[in-house]
Amino acid sequence: MVSRSGHWLGRGPSLGRQFLRRLLATALPRRLFVTSGPATSRQVCLTFDDGPHPEFTPALLDFLKSRMVRATFFVVGRQAEQYPELVRRMASEGHVVANHSYAHPRPGQRSAFQLMAEVARTDAYVESLLGIRPRLFRPPYGKTTPAQLWRLWRTGHGVVLWNVDPRDYARVDSGEVRAWFDQRPLRGGDLVLLHDTCPHAIAVLPDLIEQARGSGLCFTTLSAWAGPAYFARAEGTFASSRPTASAACEHGGYGFEQK
Ligand SMILES: [Zn+2]
Questions:
Q1: Per-residue pLDDT of the chain (259 residues; tens, 9 = 90+)
Q2: CB-CB contact of 250 with 218 (8 Å)
Q3: 49 tagged catalytic
Q4: Which of 98, 129, 146, 255 shows a CA-CA span of 20 to 30 A to 216?
Q5: Ligand 1 centroid distance, CA of 76 (Å)
Q6: 99: CA distance to ligand 1 center in Å?
Q7: How far is CA 152 from the centre of its chain?
């Protein structure tokens, strides 16, 4: 199950990798390893990687605010250092800020020790901005090794992957992303991978959010699924204007399982 590069759990069609991901997701608590929310959930978690970006991230934050949707941002440390005001804005508007390494290295470019140095550097920087230390980490390209996983867990990090990947970063236009979601509408418990370094997410989100809410789904952050101890102080208090079931579930917490 471990590829020749020594990496596993990453993006790609490998059946072995998919099996291993599923096995770990089943066997481990979500505070350690999360690929999706509970199947019975009516919540969806949107995650945005690789930012902050000076153009797309502010537009995305404006849009999320206008729809009262909270999301999770996996920031790259060196990007965060360039645009600290955007990281502060994420947190102040109720989003979760999580760690996506410092320099977004390619798989195989960092030893476990080196990767942890990047993780610690980004954690420390975000903590200096927000007063809280990120505890959720998404490996660049979703690829990690047993040694890295072990070190991440030992240092108190939850490892986050995804179960929905429209590959927005690789699409020519937003129509391709929209078509992908037409084929695969959002379902409860989905953990969606998008990027705030390309414009497609902003283009497809209005329809995506409306359709999801229309089918009774609502949006939450990863802190609801991976444990409230993380980011408890970063949680915003978006009051939903919708007097429906979604109003209750969009506040996150542990009330997500349908009885
Ligand atoms: Zn990335």
A1: 444 445 556 565 577 777 778 777 777 777 789 999 988 899 999 999 999 999 999 999 999 999 999 999 999 999 999 999 999 999 999 999 999 999 999 988 999 999 999 999 999 999 999 999 999 999 999 999 999 999 999 999 999 999 999 999 999 999 999 999 999 999 999 999 999 999 999 999 999 999 999 999 999 999 888 865 444 333 433 333 333 333 345 543 322 222 2
A2: yes
A3: yes
A4: 98
A5: 8
A6: 10
A7: 17
Alpha carbon distances (Å) from 126 to 68, 93, 135, 137: 24, 16, 11, 13
Ligand 1 centre to CA of 56 (Å) is: 15
Task: Kindly give the distance from the C-alpha atom of residue 106 to the centroid of ligand 1, in angstroms, as a whole number.
Answer: 9
Candidate list 49, 123, 168, 196, residue with the active-site label: 49
| C-alpha 7 chain-centroid distance | 21
Report the CATH fold assignment for 29-249.
Answer: TIM Barrel (3.20.20)
Catalytic residue among 53, 95, 157, 195: 195
Q: Is this structure's pTM higher than 0.90? A: no
Give me ligand 1 centre to Cα 140, in Å.
5
Q: Which residues of 58-84 are buried (b: 16+ CB within 10 A; e: fewer)?
A: bebbeebbeebbbbbbbbbbebbeebe
Q: DSSP letter at 72?
A: E
